[in-house]
Every structure is written in C-alpha cells, then in structure tokens.
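Q: For a teaching session next week I want to show students how multiple molecules come together into a single three-dimensional assembly. I've collected the sequence lines for a complex. Could you give me the predicted structure tokens for the whole thing so I can convert them for display?
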Amino acid sequence: LVGRQMPHFIVRKSRRILQDRVSEQRGGSCIIKRYCEKRFVPKYLATIGIDYGVTKVQVRDREIKVNIFDMAGHPFFYEVRNEFYKDTQGVILVYDVGQKESFDALDAWLAEMKQELGPHGNMENIVFVVCANKIDCSKHRSVDESEGRLWAESRGFLYFETSAQTGEGINEMFQTFYSAIIDLCDNGGKRPPSSMGVGFTKEQADAIRRIRNSKDSWDMLGVKPGATRDEVNKAYRKLAVLLHPDKCVAPGSEDAFKAVVNARTALLKNIK
Ligand SMILES: Nc1nc2c(ncn2[C@@H]2O[C@H](COP(=O)(O)OP(=O)(O)OP(=O)(O)O)[C@@H](O)[C@H]2O)c(=O)[nH]1
Ligand SMILES: [Mg+2]
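A: Of course. Below is the structure for the complete assembly, covering every listed component.
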C-alpha cells in the first residue's frame, strides 16, 4: 500500500515506468521534504500510492500534531489514494508553473475529492491552498501568477508561489495554511468571514478566464462571427462594466479589460 512498505524491486520498477509522465511531477513531495527536512532532491522519486508522515509544529501559541498524506499524482494510484480523502482538514494542491497541464488538472483533482467525500462530504469545511510551484524555473513559465491566483481566490482558496528547490514561499505557505486550519477549528468548522470575501465575484472570475482562453475577437466578446455593430457594442459594454479596473479587483482584470477594448476596436474596423 504505502511506498515504503513495498518490496524494493517493485518500487524501482514502478518509478522507472512513471519517470516520463512530466506533467504529473508537480513537486508535491519535494515541498513536503523542503519543509520537514529543509533539503531538496533534484532526482525524481515518484510517490508510489501514498506516503504518510507525522510532524509537530508550533502555530501561534499552540503546538499541533500534523498528519501529512502525500498522494501520488499518477491516475494509476487512484484506488490507493481514494481512501484518504475522508476526515481531511486541509489540502495542498500543487501545480508546476512550467506545465500548463498540471494547472488544468486542478479541476479534476477537486472533482476526485468531491466524489470520494460523497454527497454528505462538505468541501466548505476544508482549507485549500494552491501552490504554484517551481517558480525558480521562470524562463519556462507557462501559467502566470494572475491566472493561478484567480483560479484559487475565486474559490476561496489560499494561493502561494513556491519553489521547493530554493525554499521560496514554503514556510510562509505552511504557516498560513496551519493558521487557517486552526481558525477553522476555532470557528466550529466554518470558514471565518474574512477568508470568504475575496473582493470579486464568480461572474468576474469566469469572464476573465473565458477571455484568456478565447480563440479570436468574436469569441472574446462572446458574440457569433458576423455579429452586427450593435451586438458587438452591447457585448463590449457588458464586459467593460463587469471588468473595469475601477470596479474589479480580480487578478488579471486589467489585462482582460484591455483585451476586450482591443477586440472591440478590431471587430468594428471590419464591420460596415
Ligand atoms: N526546479 C524545480 N524542480 C522541482 C521543484 N519541486 C520539485 N522539483 C522536481 O520535480 C520533480 C518531481 O518532484 P516530486 O516532488 O517528486 O513531484 P510529485 O508531485 O510528488 O510527483 P508524484 O509523486 O509522481 O505525484 C523532481 O525531479 C523534483 O526534483 C522546484 O521547486 N523547482
Ligand atoms: Mg510525490
């Protein structure tokens, strides 16, 4: 079951097979190692199934015992990790800022957790933190900070930029994470109001995401190709009101607003 309990030759063979799945090597285990052992191992040692560890930490005036379950990212281990979602108080979701697929996979991780918790499971009572990891490799970055932050904060999750290699952001992330879990427990299992309001709406977050992923100017404004001037202007006005930098504080709103202005200008040039 747990990597360390398996015969060595099976672990070695499994690791060899998993080595090529770069998009799943987000650095989850390295983040834990950096925090607990203050070191970094560049060689990839895939987690086999699940690894478990216990540590004691000081948070504010309390000493708390933390049980860490480090899950393997590979789909192959689904049957092993699905047993470990219940009774979770906090989740660290990790993606590699140089691997867009690992960022896109965050939704599937949430879905997997939701499914395993079942209809009575309540994700609202769990603290989530998103780690945008490997920020030391800035040259290869394919998911920028505003995109990651938007995904996290629009769901009421914490967001941190981290590097398990240099240690950047790791301690701050864990301390904030533990603090939030303690606040949640002290609050009877409900998120305190301060961490719920992020200052922007889901509609704004969805619009920014849609604009980023749009394939052309028509798509960006949400109108059909060949739409009339009036239709373009109407769609433009709606988005401009929603995303105007004076009104919208969501990460990436300024760029989205500029993109919408440019899309409208480009479209109107070609519409008689
Ligand atoms: N440059 C850089 N490399 C990192 C960082 N974190 C992890 N790595 C490398 O990324 C690879 C994967 O790291 P792991 O921590 O094993 O990834 P994982 O998410 O636990 O992977 P699975 O156990 O297969 O789910 C390893 O080769 C690490 O050395 C980082 O912050 N910067
Ligand atoms: Mg791992």
